[in-house]
Specification:
mainly alpha, disordered C terminus, 17 helices, about 65% helix, two-stranded antiparallel sheet
Length: about 350
């Protein structure tokens, strides 16, 4: 049973809210500065629910007046304050409201909005359930309000980096694959760190998770960079791994006698760089037994064959997104650093590289 002091406090809170409800019809809206000060005080005093509700009421009135700037300011400040106080649910609610205001205001997407949204994203407590929903809403808005149909690359890069730091590899992959020129280094690091917890022979499976997404979106440069960074780490941190340096007039590459699928990935990138469909067909035939053992590369390779070499495949739905979804776990909620299913593939036999 609540104490008399607690009951008295609750009654005083109800009375204040009732008084504000009456006064609010008589007085103009408070300035955002005074509103922010009042709600910062409530939050500092631990009156989280009261602050949350009052911020929502004030923001809704600004929206009704189409005073978009004031609504954005108070929601941004309120969401940050609540998230930094550890109130993920309330802060996440205001953060989602903020995205909705951006959408309704039809403001042009720019650096100012991005900075506000990223500040909120960084303030979310780890594993807060509302964070991923907020990210999805932000990306959906930036895809329609900016010149980037898949969402702002800078937004994707920072988001992916945050998920990487929080050991959420599937979410990190999802965003880094659509990020900036700096994203391949981060994605390759995510995949290598993930691989380091698995069996040594699974290296190609993790390398492919950093390479295929870029190839599927037509980003050969990033795919090549991710391959280079992953294999460099592999050679640096696995001194016992046999590596052969193969050079020709036009290219250099590392060959791993015990990892034929890693050789396949390197040769695949080489074939794409040269635009050689004949080389691609030879590779596909030579490495078919190993690819078959993996079991999840077929669709990706079929799409790559069509995109880069003109080898037509039957159309069923949206192969690009279907494929990336199956490969990268889109739509799932795996546990942090959960091993991907392809890691169960048995060790392939050694094969020479033609």
């Amino acid at each position: 049973m609540a104490s008399s002091s607690s009951s008295s406090k609750i009654q005083r809170t109800i009375a204040r809210q009732q008084e504000k409800s009456v006064i609010s019809f008589r007085l103009p809206l408070p300035s955002t500065v005074s509103s922010k000060a009042n709600n910062d005080r409530r939050i500092s005093e631990g009156q989280y629910y009261e602050a949350h509700q009052q911020l929502r009421v004030i923001a809704s009135r600004y929206v009704k007046q189409e005073n978009w700037g004031a609504a954005i300011d108070i929601l941004h400040g309120g969401a940050l304050a609540l998230l930094e106080a550890g109130q993920g649910g309330s802060g996440g609610d205001l953060a989602g409201f903020l995205v909705d205001v951006y959408r309704k205001s039809k403001q042009e997407y720019g650096a100012g909005a991005r900075d506000k949204l990223l500040a909120i994203l960084r303030a979310f407590p780890r594993a807060e359930p509302t964070k991923k929903r907020f990210v999805d809403e932000v990306m959906a808005w930036s895809s329609t309000a900016s010149e980037h149909p898949q969402g702002d690359p800078q937004l994707h890069h920072v988001t992916g980096s945050i998920f990487a730091q929080e050991c959420e590899p599937y979410e990190a992959e999802r965003h880094l694959a659509l990020g900036t020129k700096d994203s391949p280094e981060q994605l390759a690091a995510v995949e290598y760190d993930w691989y380091s917890q698995d069996e040594s022979h699974t290296a190609p499976l993790y390398a492919a998770r950093a390479i295929f997404p870029y190839l599927l979106t037509g980003n050969l440069r990033s795919a090549s960079k991710a391959h280079l960074i992953f294999t460099s780490r592999l050679s640096t941190y696995n001194k016992s791994l046999s590596v052969q340096e193969v050079s020709s007039k036009s290219s250099d590459m590392r060959v791993y006698p015990s990892l034929p699928l890693l050789n396949f990935l390197g040769l695949l990138l080489l074939a794409i760089q040269r635009g050689s469909s004949d080389l691609y067909k030879q590779l596909a035939k030579h490495y078919a037994p190993y690819v078959k053992e993996v079991g999840v590369w077929d669709d990706a390779l079929a799409q790559i064959g069509e995109t880069y070499f003109g080898i037509r495949i039957p159309r069923q739905g949206n192969p690009l997104f279907d494929m990336m979804g199956s490969m990268m776990g889109f739509g799932g909620s795996p546990k942090p650093m959960e091993k991907p299913k392809p890691a169960e593939v048995p060790t392939p036999p050694v094969a020479d590289v033609d």
